[in-house]
Each structure stands twice: as C-alpha cells, then as structure tokens.
Amino acid sequence: MKWFWGSLLIIIGLIFLGINTNYLSPSQIADIARFWPLLLVIWGVSLVFARTKYGWIITFLVFFASLSFICMATFGQINYKFNKLVTTTQTHTFSRSDTTVKKAKITINTGAIELNLKTDPNTLIKGGLTSNYLEPELKIDKTSNDQANISLNTTTKWNKWSNWPSGKNTLDVKIAEKIPVDLTVNAGASQINLDLSKAIIEKITLNAGATEINVKLGNTIQNNAKIQISTGASNIKFTIPKDIGVRFKNDSPVTGMQLNNYKNIGNKIYESPDYSSKSKKIEINSSSGASSVEIKTK
Q: Does 77 have pLDDT greater than 50?
C-alpha cells in the first residue's frame, strides 16, 4: 500500500510542478488524466507482491514503466502503432473576413505549440493548425462600436480508437493588417514567432511557459503601445525600427541582455538611444523567468 500512496503523491506533485512552471498546458493535463487506470495497476501490483522478497522491485519497475509510458504518450515525438492505434496528423483550417470591423481584440489560447503569426490585408483572421489531436476553435463577438473580440483556442480532440497524442503541433495564423489590434497569446512551452511588421499594434500580452520568442515590429505600431511578457525560462528577441523609442523594464532574473547601447535610468528600466526625441515610443515590460533578451534595430 505504501508504494501506491507514494506513487500517487509523486505523480500529483509532478503535475502541480508542471502547472506552476507553465510547462504543462491544459491539453497535456487532459491527456495525462486519461491514464488514471494505471494507478489501479500500480495499486494492484503493490498488493499482490507486498509480502514477496522482491515485491518492492517489481512495484518500482511497474511504476517506472507506467510513468515512462505517460511521458512518451504526452510529450513523445514518435508515432505510435499499438493494436491498430495509428497516429494521423491533420491540418485544420479556419478563416473569417469582415470589412466592417474597425478594431480587433485577438486572444490565442493554446498549449505546447509552435505559433507562427503574420498579417494579411485581406482577412480578419485565418490560418491552420497541424496536429494529430488538437483542433482550432474560433469565436468572434462583434460589439456595437464595430470592434471584433476574437478568441482562438486549441482544443483536444483525442479519439482513443484512431489517434494517439504525439508529435509536433504547429499553429499558423494571419491577422488583420489595416485595423488596430490588441493581441494576447496564452501558451505553454512554445516557440512563438510574431511578424507584426505591418500590423497596427496597440498592445501585446504574451503569457507562456519555457519559450523561444521572436517579435518583429514595424513603423505601423501605435504610439505608446505596450508589450507585456510573462514567461518561464525563455529566449526573447525583438526587431524594432530605429525610428521608434523603446523603454524596456526588466522585472525578471535575465541572464543576458543585448540592448544596443540602451541607457539604464534606474529601477530596472532601460531606454533606447535618443528616446526622448523620438516621435513614436513604445514600452516593453518583461517579468519572465531566467531568460535572455535581445532588442535590435533595423
């Protein structure tokens, strides 16, 4: 019995650790929860072999094999074939256009994924999700002042008889280019590539786990636009036009900063060269884990 309760505490502890460090996404937690019958297997093995000489070894091996199986099924990069269970990767597309929208508030909620985001002058939002167990869910609510509140979520569509969660998830998105945009991205451990060089950005909020982030901004960004980044251990890179003044505030234990002669004005705040003379200014706030930050101009 002590093996069962000990194993249960270890599993629960690892799950909460993954949640607190933003390493586990909601979809991955749902995947892990489907393996709860393995707890009964471990419990049964610990009872059967409780009084045998090598019972603890057998129980440990079963526990280790179960934990390895869960990890491989949830995070594995290989395709599985198990009693006719075959992994199939599909690309699910989505698209919405509306020429009457004057402003968009876009929220993307996803788990561990590669997110590639660009702009398109002929759409409100469109793209595709490539995965073997995730599907996109797009919701748009239009307000009375012609603002579109857009929510793009990745949802788990796991069929135990036909596909097994594995492999890489890639989400490609194109957003409106001709209207102001407030963009929020909530993701797990990810690679996030945002090419917003032609976007009319008012605000960007990035919340993610251990992440590699590449953000490219253009002169179309709104004056006094704010960018808020909150991540786990990350590598963050910005490309910003030289005509824009940048104020960068660091509230994180950054292990390396490349800020191109930015001036430290105190309280962990840095300003780009000739900041006060720039006609357009933006603010970047970082509250990430141990990270490296690079801001380069073009």
A: no
Is 237:291 a contact under the CB 8 Å cutoff? no
Specify whether the CB–CB gap between 222 and 201 falls below 8 A: yes
Rounded CA-CA distance 136/124 in Å is: 16
Tokens standing for residue 200: 């009319």
Question: How far apart (Å, rounded) are the C-alpha atoms in residues 238 and 55?
Answer: 56
| DSSP per position, 142-163 | E-TTSEEEEEEEEEE---TTT-
Q: How many CB atoms lie within 10 A of CB 244?
A: 20
Nearest C-alpha neighbor of 106 from the set 61, 51, 173, 26: 173
Report whether 106 contacts 125 (CB < 8 A).
Answer: yes
Q: Pick the closest to residue 96 from 135, 131, 122 (CA basis).
A: 122
Whether the per-residue pLDDT at 163 is higher than 60: the answer is: no
| 3-state secondary structure (DSSP) of residue 43 | helix
Q: Check residue 72 and give its pLDDT.
A: 63
Q: What is the 3-state secondary structure (H, E, C) of 82-100?
A: ECCEECCCEEEEEEECCCC
Contact status, residue 180 vs residue 104, Cβ threshold 8 Å: yes
SS3 call for 54: coil
Q: What does the alpha-carbon distance between residue 34 and residue 160 come to, in Å, rounded to a whole number?
A: 10
Residues 6 or more apart whose Cβ sits within 8 Å of residue 140:
96, 98, 124, 125, 148, 149, 150, 151
Tell me the pairing of strands 81-82 and 114-120.
unpaired
At 186 the three-state DSSP class reads: strand
DSSP secondary structure letter of residue 102? -
Greater model confidence, 23 or 232: 232
135-139, 148-152, 159-163: which range is least confident on average?
159-163
And the tokens for 168? Answer: 């890489």
pTM: 0.72
Sign of CA dihedral 38, 43, 48, 54: positive
Quote the CA–CA distance of 149 and 141 in Å, as a whole number: 5
